[in-house]
Design brief:
Number of helices: 6
Structural class: alpha/beta
Helix content: 25-40%
CATH architecture: 3-Layer(aba) Sandwich
Number of domains: 1
Strand content: 15-25%
Oligomer: single chain
Amino acid sequence: MIKRFVLIINLFLFFSISLYPQINSSGIKLGRVKYSGGGDWYNDPSAEPQLLDFVKKNTNINVEPQYEFVDLASDNIFYYPILFLTGHGNINFTDSEVRRLRAYLKSGGFLYVDDDYGLDKFIRREMKKVFPEQNFVELPYSHGIFKYPFQFPNGVPKIHEHDNKEPQCFGLFYNERLCVLYTYESNPSDGWPGDDVHKLEPEKRLAALKFGTNIIVWALSN
């Protein structure tokens, strides 16, 4: 199944390649969101390459296992079908960034936000700028993102302990399509880097990689 957004991106690349010769569209990449406000948006740069390598080995999705960051103020966000945002602290979106992110999400883009601890109140505030009429809603365990290709009958797995709370998975929607996924008290992206980074148990790291794969599959097929 080819997602409408991917077709739009491919057409955009076709007509823009002379302006952006550095863009390589041979495989799906994740765009790490660079934001202002003081939070460490850049932490764990090996996370995306390790996750995409797992995706490459366990699905037939064409991916490029590498780390790339993207500024929300740039139109380059439209080159990525999936954006990833994480960190430990404050986030501040400018008016221009809000407009671009809203346009990206309404055009079929997907944003995954993972609270690496201390992000919660800031991401809720900033996403309210993007979709003022919405609040994050918790996804039920019956949601498709927990079902394919890997089963998570109890919802998002607990990968990294923060405040001894239950892990939760929230969403924002546009035209009934889940376009923003937010994981809280779970921290799957801590399980994506190599074993030597966070020293997680093998089963937790595997669960994190599987859930990350579910996110990518869902984002590209819905």
